[in-house]
Amino acid sequence: MFIKEIKKLGLLLCCIVGLVMSGAAQTNCDKINELNTKLLVLSNDTTKVNVLNELAYEYLIIDKDMTYKYANSAYALAKRLDYRIGEGKALIYLGKQHYRKALEFDSTLSHYQEALSLFESENSLKHVAEAHEAIGEHFHDLFYLNKEAHYAEALKSYQQAVTAFEQWKPRGQMSEMEKEYLANLFQKLAELYTVTEQDDEALKYSRKSIRLKQRLEKYQNNFDFQFINGRVKRLNRTLRKERYTRYGLFGTIGLLVLFAILLSINNGQKLKVNKKLKQQTRDLEKKNQQINQQNTEINRQNKDIELANFELTEITKTEKAQKEAIQTANQELREKNEEILAQRKQILESNEELNKKNEEIHFQYQQLEKSNEKFLKANQLLNTMLDEIEQKNEQIKASVTDLEQQRDDLSSAKTELEKLQRSKARLTAMVAHDLRNPLNVVVGYSNPDSSIRIDGDTKKHIYKASQRINSLIDDMLDVQKYAESDLPIDKKQDQLFQTAQNAINELSIFAEQKGLNLQNNISPQWESLYDGKYIRRVFENLLTNAIKFTPNGGKILFEAKENPQNDNLVVSVTDTGEGIPTDKFKEIFEPFNQLDARNFANTSSTGLGLAFCKMAIEAHQSQIQVASTLGVGTRFFFELPKILVAEHLTSDSSTGAPDQPSALVFSEEDKQFLASYVAALKKYELYEISDLEKVLAQIEVTDRPHLETWKNRLKSAIDNYNETEYHRLIELATIN
Predict the structure, then answer these.
(1) Which residue has the higher pLDDT, 395 or 234?
(2) pTM for the whole thing?
(3) Mean pLDDT within 76-94
C-alpha cells in the first residue's frame, strides 16, 4: 500500500510538470514571433547566437526540424565567433534532437559532454548545471527504457546539477525564473527516487520543489498547482499515520514475544498473561479496525487521484490541440519568414545597385565640381560687370530723379500759369462789365457833343459813378498789395459802433430802396484797436453783399459780443438773405470767384469784396468766418481786441445814447454857434468835397462832444456821398 501511494505522489509531480509545460506552450507562440522579428535586424554577433538558441529552445516541443535548424545555425555562428557558451547551448539542443529524432543515444551523450567541457572551460557554473541536467535527463530516459544500469549516472548528474546551480548563486539572490529552474531539478530527483521506491528521498525532494514553487508568484494563483499541492500534503499526512501505525504493530508483536518468553519463565502467571494477551488482542482488533478505516480513506483518496488523472488526461488532449494549432501557426510563420528573407535578399540586391549608382553619382559630382569652379570664375567676372552696370544705373536713376523733379516743377509752374491766366480772364471780364457802366455815365455826361445840360443832379450822377470806379480800383490795388504782403495797417483805438454806423450811413439809401431793416446793435461802450479805414471798408463790403442778397423787407444786423474764452469781441454782420451753400464757403473768399455768381439775385459784383475782407481781417491777426443756412440767412463774423470804456453822457442826451442820430439835439446857442458854418456849407454842392472839407476844418468843437459827433457824421456823409444824411444833419443845425 505504501509503495502505491509513493507512486501516486510521483504521478502528481508529473502532473505538475505537465501543467507548467501546458502554460509554457500557450505563450511560446508570441515569443517565437518576437524572436523571429528580432533576428531579421541583428548582425552576426553573439546576440544573434543567443536569439538562435532561444528559437531552438522554443521549438523543442512543437517542431523538431525547426529546433535542429536554429540550433545548427547557432552552433556554426558561435564556432566562427569562438563564442563557447553559445556553442555549448547549441550542442545541448542538437543532442536533444538527436535523441528525439533517431534515438541516437551515444551521439546525444557526446553532444552533452562536449557542451559540459565547453562550459567548464569558461567556468560558467550556471551553464555547467544545465549540461549536468541534460546528461541526467538522458540517463533518466535510458533508465525508463529498462536500462537500469544508468540509474546511478542519472542520479549523480542531477545532484551535480543542483550543486553547481546552488554554487553559482545563493538561493536568496535568485530570480523567480532561476528558483523555478532549481525547483524543477528537485522535482526530477523526486521523480527518480519515486520510480526506484526510495520513499524518504522522494518525499524530501518533493517538499523542496513544492516549497520553492509556493513562494513564486507564478504558482500562487494557479488552481491546478494548489489542488495537487493539497493532495500531496494530505497524502504525506496519511503516509505518516500509516508509518506510525506500522511502528505500533511492530511494538505490539515485540511485546507478544516478550510475553511468550515471560510465560515460559513464569508459568504461574500464565492466566494473567493470557488475560492481558486477550486484552491486547482486543486492542489490536480495534487498531486493525482503525487501519481498515484509514485504508478506506486512502482508497477514497485514490479515487480522487484517479479523477485528477482523468482531468490531466483531458488537459493533455487540450494541450495536444493547442500544440497542433501552434504547429499550424509556426508553419505560417516559417512561410512569412521565408517571404521576409526573400524581401531581405531583394533589399540587399537593391542596395548593391544603389551603391553602383552612388559611385556613378560621385563621379558625376566630381565632374560637376570642376564645372562649378569654371562657373565661379565666370560668375566673379559677371559680378564685376554687374557692379559697373549698377553704378551706371544709379547715375541714370539720379538723372531721372532730377528730370522728374524738373518735370514736377514745370507742371506746377504750368498749373500756376493757367490759374493766373484764368484770373486774368476773370479780371478782364470784371473790368469790362463792372467798370463799363460807371464809365459810360461819365463819358456820356462829359461828351462835348452831348446836348445834356450839366446841372446839380448830373454832377451827382457823375460823382457817384466816379466814386464807384474809385472803389473798384481801391479793391483791386489793396488785394494786389496783400498778395505781395504789402498791406500797411495803422491801428488806433476807435469806437466800433461809429465805424459800423459810418458804413451804414453810406449805404443806407440802397437799403431803403429795398425796404430793408438796418440795425446797429453794437454797444457804444466797446472800443478796439484796429485800422479804421480798412475795418470800415470791411463793414461796407459785408453790408453791400447783405443788401444785394437779402430780399425786399429783410433784416440786416450789426452786433459785437464778448467771447467768454478770451478777451476779444466777436463782431458780426447777419442778414436774412437766401444763404450760401456750405461747399461754397471756401470759394467765396477767393479773388474773382464771385464772378461765377454774378447772376445770383440779379446783382453784379467784382468778386473782390470778400477777398478784401479776408485779407484785411487776417492783416489784423484774426480770421473772418461764415455761417449760413439756405433760405434762412448768412452771418459773417470775426474777432477784434476788446476795450471797455465809460458811456459818453451829454446834457442834451435824453435817451442815454448820444451817438444815435435821433439823440442829437441842438440848443439855440449851438445853432447860433454853427450858423456861419452852416451858411458856408450851403454854398457848395455835395460833390464839391474839398470846399466842404475846408469849411468843416474851421469848426472847433472839442469842448462840445455832441457837436463833435455832428461834425464827424457830416464828414462821413460827405465822404460817402450820402446826400440824405448830409441834408438831414444840415437841417438839424439850421436856425428855424
Answers:
(1) 395
(2) 0.36
(3) 90
pLDDT at 482: 56
Return the top range by mean pLDDT from 12-26, 39-53, 282-296: 39-53
Which 8-state DSSP code applies to residue 104?
Answer: -
Please classify residue 667 by burial: count the beta carbons closer than 10 Å to its beta carbon, then call 0-12 exposed, 13-18 middle and 19+ buried: exposed
Q: Are 637 and 571 in contact (CB under 8 A)?
A: yes
Lowest mean pLDDT among 1-10, 263-272, 305-314, 335-344: 1-10
Return the closest-CA partner of residue 470 out of 719, 653, 668, 694.
Answer: 719
Q: With b meaning 16 or more CB within 10 Å and e meaning fewer, what string describes 188-223?
A: bbbbbbbbeeebeebbebbebbbebbeeeeebeebe
Q: Order across the sheet with 517-520: list the strands.
A: 517-520, 555-562, 568-575, 633-641, 625-629
Q: So what's the pLDDT on residue 3? A: 46
Q: What is the DSSP letter of 700?
A: -
**What is the tally of helices (H) and strands (E) in the chain?**
21, 8
- Give the H/E segment covering residue 561: strand 555-562
Task: State residue 646's pLDDT score.
Answer: 52
Residue-by-residue DSSP string for 197-227: T-HHHHHHHHHHHHHHHHTSHHHHT-HHHHH
What average pLDDT score do residues 559-574 get?
Answer: 92
Question: What pLDDT digit, counting tens, does each position of 433-485 carry?
Answer: 556 556 666 666 666 666 666 666 666 667 666 766 776 676 676 666 555 55
What three-state secondary structure class fits 484? coil
Please report, for residues 132, 373, 499, 697, 706, the alpha-carbon distance to residue 692 in angstroms, rounded to integers and kept in the order given. 162, 109, 21, 9, 20
Side-chain-facing half-sphere of 270: CA atoms under 13 Å: 4
* pLDDT at 230 > cutoff 80: no
C-alpha grid cell, residue 450: 452831348
Neighbour count for residue 691 (Cβ, 10 Å): 14
Mean pLDDT, rounded, of the chain: 77
Residue 635 sits at φ, ψ, to 5 deg, of: -130, 120
If one compares 657 and 102, the residue with the highest pLDDT of the two is 102
Q: Which three cell numbers stand for residue 219?
A: 504558482
Q: Say if residues 730 and 678 touch (Cβ distance below 8 Å).
A: yes
Q: Grid coordinates in use for 95?
A: 543532442
**pLDDT tier at 242 (50, 70, 90 boundaries)?**
low
Q: Is the pLDDT assigned to residue 314 strictly greater than 80?
A: no
- CB-CB contact of 493 with 528 (8 Å): yes
Rounded Cα distance between 663 and 578, Å, is 34
Cβ atoms of 539 and 617 within 8 Å: the answer is no
Distance CA 724, CA 511 (A): 13
Cell numbers placing 241: 499515520
Q: Could you tell me the domains of the chain? A: 2-236 (1.25.40.10), 487-646 (3.30.565.10), 658-736 (no CATH)
Q: To which H or E segment does residue 481 belong?
A: helix 456-483
How far is it, in rounded angstroms, from Cα 535 to Cα 368?
92
- Cα end-to-end span (Å), the chain: 185
Q: Number of C-alpha atoms within 13 angstroms, CB side, residue 434? A: 26
Cell digits of residue 703: 469842448
pLDDT of amino acid 622? 92
Please provide the DSSP assignment of 407-422 as one string.
Answer: HHHHHHHHHHHHHHHH
Amino acid at 238: T
- How many other C-beta atoms are found inside a 10 Å radius of the C-beta of residue 470? 11
- Cell numbers of 586, please? 471756401
